[in-house]
Fold this protein.
Amino acid sequence: MLKILHAADLHLDSPFAGLSPERAAQRRAEQRELVRGLVDLAAREQVDLVLLAGDLFDSGRIYRDTARELAEDLSRIEAPVFIAPGNHDPFDGASPYALPIWPSNVHIFSSATVQKMELPELNCVVYGAAFLSERQDQSPLTGFRAPEDGRIHLMVLHANTEGAGYAPITAAQIADSGLDYLALGHIHRTGGLQRSANTCWAYPGCPEGRGFDEAGDKGALIVRVDKGDAQADFVSLCRRRYEILNVDLTAVTDPVAAVLAALPADAARNIFRVRLTGRYEMDTAALTAVERAVEERVWAAQVQDRTRPPEDLWARAGEDNLTGLFLQAMAKACEQNPEDGQLQLAVRFGLAALENGEDVAP
């Protein structure tokens, strides 16, 4: 059995356009620290191989020291490292992969057709292919079949199982490949270990989110592979998470307190998009107060006002439906107990619960 570290889509030197220039620079520095986290993980897990499935760089235009730092960090891994360049960092004469800086334990695939490297000391074969430009319309798995020779057969690819373009591959091609494990990159969310016939495959997702379309926890996979079988464990690596937080302000008297109460305990290190929803009379002063309070509690934030003006609580009491019956009953209760503020809150919460659908009264 082999133990593998599988990672992809680091996108080093991303612009982080949604952040201030200072915050963006800090995030790029943290991305480089992430590579050291991968190196430490490889050592801690004592992996036999490292498979990096493309888009390690966000583009061919990177900061001068980024590729050298990556090469130096990878040299510290006491295992072979295989890289399959992706659509953001294709292999060509001007790419960072063509520089004479890569250590002897790192192998970079440089052909659009599948190449192989035999590792007799591990009784395995590692296959891979590279993007040679930003677009690859042909499947690298077309016509590929690993031999049945008792060895463990692995492949690392930057490829797309979810549609055309970007080295599209199908479940049928994966099933016919004869591989024991296919390490993929390109999809930025982890989907867990998949199986097509006897071939196991997975996307680890990106190890650091770069926007709210990459929200939640991010990391890499530690995969244990044997003939026709694999198990994978997700390992969180991200320094900061992007999170989307919806806060319903219906019946709330203090929006700042409501938003702060909804923030998780580790909010200070993460990046939030706070969406204010529900019925609330939001004015400029209240929105500014929420923005300032959130900015003081989190690393970076966006606050979006999606509230709607409150309705007259009793405006629909005459309707011949469940809402009308509810309001009629609550109106009587409020008349009998005019000092009971909890009844007013009950009316608001009840209306909010009924907003998504109503039954016509018999």
